[in-house]
Amino acid sequence: PQLLILDEPLTGLDAGSARQVKDVLTARVRDGVTVILTSHILEVAERIGVIDKGRLIAEGSLEELRRQAGKLGSSLEDIFLDLVASESNAA
After folding, report:
1. Most distant CA pair in the chain: distance in Å?
2. Is the pTM of this model over 0.70?
3. Between 76-90 and 62-69, two packed helices, what is the crossing angle to 10 degrees?
4. d(CA 91, CA 72)
5. What angle do CA 6, 9, 13 make, to 5 degrees?
6. Is the CB of residue 44 less than 8 Å from the CB of residue 10?
7. Per-residue pLDDT of the chain in tens (91 residues, 90 and over written 9)
8. Cα separations (Å) of 11 from 17, 37, 38, 39, 47?
């Protein structure tokens, strides 16, 4: 397939198995496949989309999101919470 949508594919895996899954997905991306992966393990995200109430409110690399949120050096968790709070306040 040209599109893979995976919901929490690393949940419950040991470190070695998680690495194998990530290697397979990385190889698929190199082959031109689009991979959409949901995860609560924020460290596995390289390209990040922040979704709030079903809407994409931000996307980019961790550094791009840090700049967008004005939180250089912050964790992805802090950035996520700040972006979602800002979006809720704007609504």
Report:
1. 43
2. no
3. 50
4. 25
5. 175
6. yes
7. 999 999 999 999 999 999 999 999 999 999 999 998 888 777 777 778 888 888 888 889 888 988 888 888 888 888 888 888 887 777 6
8. 10, 12, 11, 8, 19
Contact yes or no for 35/25 (Cβ under 8 A)? yes
Tokens 């972006």 sit on residue: 83
Sign of CA dihedral 39, 77, 73, 69: positive
HSE on the CB side for 19, CA within 13 Å?
3
Enter the tokens of residue 84: 């979602």
Q: For residue 49, what are its two tokens?
A: 């989309």
Residue 41 · residue 7 · CB < 8 Å? no
